[in-house]
Amino acid sequence: MKRTVVAASAAVLLLPLSACGGDAEAGGGSTVTVTVGYQSRTINTVTAGTLLRSLGSFEKQLNALDDGVRYKVSWQDYATGAPITAQMTAGKIDIGSMGDFPLLINAARGKQLDRPTRLVSVTGYNLRGGLNTIVTAPGSELTSLKDLKGKKVSTSVGSAADGTLVRALQRAGIDPADGIEKLNQQPAVGASALAAGSTDALSQFVAWPGLLAYQGKAKALYDGARLNLPTFHGVTAREDFAERRPAVLEAFLKAQAEATDYLNEHPVDAAEKVAKATGLPAEVVYLYNGAHGIATFDPAIKPRLVAALKQDVSVLKSAELTGDVDVDSFVDDRYVKKALGAAAYRDRLASKPAPAASEAWPEGASKTLTFTSPSALLRHVARHRDALRAAYVPDTTTGTLWFADRAVWVADGDTLLPFVAPDTARAYIAGHAGARIVSYADALERAS
Fold it and tell me: What is the model's pLDDT at position 21?
């Protein structure tokens, strides 16, 4: 019997329980609706959401199943992980993707409501924590975390960005509970609050900090990679769905692997596809998802990420958002191992992120140019500034990629060094006599 898969939009968010991973008679056969919750603008989940959907990879994998079933995929788009968890524990979403802190809440809520979920793969990660950034308004006089004491800071409580804020403040000697006035806001609301001046700073996850910086609406105050703690996004599935439909889950994970390989092999085209689907500038998508972007994409559940997840539990407990979470029982890599094959999975576990590098994206080009140093990039920008879509440089200390024209530049003799945030630049200057901060225009002139 020839079968087809239908990709359904999420016009109706709350589907009947029987339609999610359930069977319905249709023309003598059966129809199974698989409901996928994703976050289109949280672009480190694109290999399990936006890019995966645009490539049609999941539907193709389902079509390849020889089980006599007609599959229908319902894609449901959300701004954060919390509503995905709510729908999963209500039995209305089968597979979802979200950041590390929301994943823990997903695990806790699933156990609490007797609808257990399992972490089945990883999407994008950064081993130092660079996926989260604290930003301020362009004209703000705040230059370090210590300046946030007594100020208003917007974040999404329970998110990875909130975790970064809490840990960063603690390291700066500020009590996150009463040293600041924390505003619990959705990312878009927080961005508007920053623009209106009703909050002093914004701590958020991708792609908000990069987007606001690119638009000239914010500047970086703190690079989350200074924590040197891994942050990641992953895929979670309802346990009952995984046990009832293992072949469907494996098909999803095979499709995710295909989308991952596509992103890694065609980073510019992938950025353009995601930009088209989300309305985000492709230059911002590439900052995170590019060849040397802030995120590394790999579905393997690396032990270092699991260890970081265990450390995250204490942050959520202190905020009274969860109790204890059994991370070991939540993590289940059986399905992704089977989907990829044991040997390929071992190779992915052993893989490492690409080294940081400076890049320029010429107008009309399908590939970026890579440079051996930030100074070499600046020389190219000085000669071709009207013919470039974007230029990127890695932070000298953390490796976090940032827009060259938004970076903090330091001249150390004849060497020009970029940093995401001013406090990281000052930390470098403190250990290097004669080094000083210079403007971007000055850096371009010095390089040329």
Answer: 56
